[in-house]
Design brief:
The complex is a heterodimer of chains A (244) and B (304). Chain A is of the alpha/beta class. In chain A, 37% of the residues lie in helices and 27% in strands. Chain A has one domain: P-loop containing nucleotide triphosphate hydrolases (Rossmann fold, 3-Layer(aba) Sandwich). Chain A has helices spanning 45-52, 74-80, 96-106, 111-124, 140-151, 170-185, 197-200, 220-226, 232-242; strands spanning 5-16, 19-30, 34-39, 60-65, 68-69, 81-85, 158-162, 189-193, 205-210, 213-218. The radius of gyration of chain A is 18 Å and the shape is globular. The N and C termini of chain A lie far apart (44 Å). Chain B folds into 2 domains: 4-219, P-loop containing nucleotide triphosphate hydrolases (Rossmann fold), CATH 3.40.50.300; 224-286, 2-Layer Sandwich (Alpha-Beta Plaits). Chain B has a 6-stranded mixed beta sheet, sandwiched between helices. A 4-stranded antiparallel beta sheet of chain B has the order 2-1-4-5, with helices on one face. Chain B is globular. Classes of the chains: A alpha/beta (244), B alpha/beta (304). Chain A binds chain B through residues 39-42, 139-141, 163, 166-172, 174, 177-178, 181-182, 184-185, 195-198, 201-202, 220-221, 231-233, 236-237, 240-241, and chain B through 36-40, 134-136, 161-169, 190-192, 205, 234-235, 238, 251-255, 290, 293-294, 297-298.
Chain lengths: 244, 304
């Protein structure tokens, strides 16, 4: 059997007026892969991600998500993906359980499934005692872990993580990556952006965007060889600085 | 005179202890880093030092003036860049800068020498509203506004958060140049790697300072041999090493795991051998600030 692809894009492009935010990007992500999507601020990452989530219609090019076309099958795309960002937050004035029920309901889980998933999720996060607490009372790190678990509550084939770990302490940041690894191990495809270059190393493969184009795409180790660099930080600086 | 002196500062919000017995001093010309995650209490401390918030207990002096009794003097001599972008979004770059200069009864021209390096990078866009600038440019403008009245002390609260690695590096190069002009700088950051760029750092977590020292001394005091371990499947390797009884700590660090042991390395080798990890590498590694920070966090959790 041939490889299963979670994401396939061909010359995917988005223009806003005369400005080309995403310029003919072409890449594939395999099912179960942890794919790091890097680039400087303003390089076009968010625009690309919004197209892949079915939230923004491309100007030209093609893409499929879990086999669904992002022009014609946006509703199927949305059912097969999860999304979490640092800015996207849970409802602070709802409790932990209410947040879970709300999102699980939106994704169409049955009452029975919601009940089971809630128990499983709280147990896994060791938050059984906090189920009835308002989300606003939780430390940031817990919110992020909860937010990730809710983003995958409907067993999506792909989860998009937009700078999920900004500002958290180094131990919590690693615990968060444990959740990512575990999801990938179950076969969930992870598409993640980050400004922490050590986290880039945790990815199976990485793409680096500069001015709307993908300038490099490979495993962290091969990228370091290719750019004769000690760390992903050096690779990133070489590419992002070369533009001007 | 020590430009910043903090003595036994306490601050609570209701039942939340935001700051607990914080003391440190910043020397002339020093670049002092407050290193810690969100919620550690860094911004609360800045607000107390900038005279915007009263501590429950303790004293603090900035440029020799008491932050409570002589708050007017402190305000005149401090440049403060808050964590949240707080310039006027609908004013242009030039208008924002003139506004801040005027508030401090000075002019952009009078102190232009101090901001020249930074301002020249954003000058081509000087007629653009601040709200329409990129993250890196906003940050440069905010720094110019904090410097325009030639402060004696500079407070920078998380200037590089959410900024990409290129802009972060540029920002630290600017700080180095400012430091060479003799301005003492107190800067906070959640990025552990930035600690190495400071003269001295305080590692802060849950409102308490865990350690204060030069970055080199903090790393030197780590006290345990760190092993860098790598294999093809890092997730399985991580799980296996955490399950090993001789493991003291095991954390992901870029392409390696950093492992400290309560036993010797040969025991780890022996434990891993039958688990058949592909491309297994074990080698000694130098600890960094982040290793120290996590170690201190674990100790803090044990004592509370």
């Amino acid at each position: 059997m041939s490889k299963q692809y979670a994401i396939v894009t061909k010359a995917l492009t988005k223009r806003f007026g005369h400005f080309t935010a995403t310029d003919a990007i072409t890449f594939e992500v395999e099912q179960g892969e942890i794919f790091g999507f890097l680039g400087a601020n303003g390089a076009g990452k968010t625009t690309a991600m919004r197209m892949l989530c079915g939230l923004l219609t491309p100007t030209s090019g093609e893409a499929t998500i879990a086999g669904y076309d992002i022009y014609k099958q946006t509703e199927q795309v949305k059912k097969r993906i999860g999304y979490m960002s640092q800015k996207f937050s849970l409802y602070e004035d709802l409790t932990v359980k209410e947040n879970i029920r709300f999102y699980a309901g939106i994704y169409g889980l049955s009452n029975q499934q919601i009940k089971e998933k809630t128990a499983e999720l709280l147990r896994k996060l060791q938050m059984e005692k906090e189920g009835g607490q308002l989300v606003s009372s939780l430390p940031l790190g817990w919110k992020q872990k909860l937010s990730f678990s809710i983003a995958v509550i409907h067993d999506p084939s792909i989860v998009f993580l937009d700078e999920p770990t900004g500002g958290v302490d180094p131990i919590t940041r690693r615990q968060f990556w444990d959740l990512i690894y575990e999801a990938a191990d179950r076969g969930v495809t992870i598409f993640v952006t980050t400004h922490y270059m050590d986290e880039a190393e945790y990815c199976n493969r990485i793409s680096i965007m500069v001015d709307g184009k993908i300038k490099a795409l490979d495993t962290p180790r091969k990228l370091k060889e290719q750019f004769n660099a000690d760390s992903m930080n050096d690779v990133f600086l070489q590419l992002a600085r070369a533009k001007s | 005179m020590q430009p910043i002196v903090v003595q036994h500062i306490h601050k609570s919000f209701g039942s939340v202890k935001a700051l607990h017995d914080i003391s440190f001093t910043v020397e002339e010309g020093e670049l002092f880093g407050l290193i810690g995650p969100d919620g550690a209490g860094k911004s609360t401390l800045f607000r107390i030092l900038a005279t915007l918030l009263l501590a429950d207990k303790g004293n603090a002096y900035v440029n020799g003036s008491d932050v409570v009794k002589d708050y007017r003097s402190v305000r005149r001599h401090v440049g403060y860049m808050p964590g949240r972008f707080s310039l006027y979004q609908d004013l242009t770059i030039a208008e924002n800068l003139n506004f801040f200069a005027t508030i401090f009864s000075t002019s952009v021209e009078e102190n232009y020498e101090l901001i020249r390096d930074i301002y020249e990078q954003i000058a081509p866009f000087k007629d653009r509203p601040a709200g329409k600038l990129s993250g890196g440019m906003k940050q440069k403008l905010a720094l110019c506004c904090a410097l325009v009245h030639k402060p004696r002390v500079l407070f920078l609260d998380e200037p590089t958060t959410g900024v990409d690695p290129v802009s972060r590096q540029e920002f630290w190069e600017m700080l180095k140049r400012l430091k060479s002009k003799g301005i003492p700088i107190l800067v906070s950051t959640p990025y552990m790697d930035e600690a190495m760029l400071c003269d001295k750092v305080a590692l802060i977590q849950k409102g308490e300072i865990m350690q204060i020292n030069t970055p080199a001394a903090i790393v030197a005091g780590f006290g345990r041999q760190v092993w860098a371990v790598r294999a093809k499947n890092m997730y399985h390797l991580l799980k296996d090493i955490r399950a090993f009884e001789g493991t003291h700590s095991c954390f992901a660090f870029g392409e390696f795991l950093h492992v400290t042991l309560d036993t010797d390395e040969s025991a780890l080798q022996k434990y891993l051998r039958p688990l058949q990890h592909e491309d297994l590498v074990i080698r000694p590694a130098q600890p960094g600030i982040e290793d120290s920070f996590m170690q201190l966090m674990l100790e803090q959790n044990e004592t509370t």
